[in-house]
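Same chain as my last thread, 171 residues:
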Amino acid sequence: MLKRRSHLAILVFLMLMVSFAAVSYAEEEKEEGIFISSVSLSEVYANTKTEYYVKVIDAGVEPGTERDKLPAADAKVSIRMTKGSQELKQELVFSGEEGYKGEVTFPEAGLWNIVISAVDQNNEAHSDMLEMELTVKEKSNEMTYLWLGIMALFAAGIIYVIFRIRKLMKR
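reply #2:
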């Protein structure tokens, strides 16, 4: 009988703990601040203009809000890109649902350090920063040579057909 009561007491205790955890989770408050959620810099080549987007979201939403329904933050977004003594700085411009837009032309290939910062325009205490490394590649000329080769074969084929037609017309 005593064992049964202790098991019952443990079961009641566990049920109370689970219900308390569920209630505290349900009463969770909104998060405050802004967050850099994505950056669209991936395939980047030296000496080539690259358009990119940085998405900054407002965290002041109800918990459980779907990711694609998160509102864009009203922020001042800047980016700093460095490689050795070279430095590129930009202020990004808001461009609707894509986020904040920028364009960059990296002067040389290699590993670039990138620091993106976003500061809430309405509350400067809310900010976020993202640091990342980006490998900028040399533009490959393989495709150029491939196209030149294909065009040369095509031209040779046309010349051959023209000579065959002339030869047949002389007969």
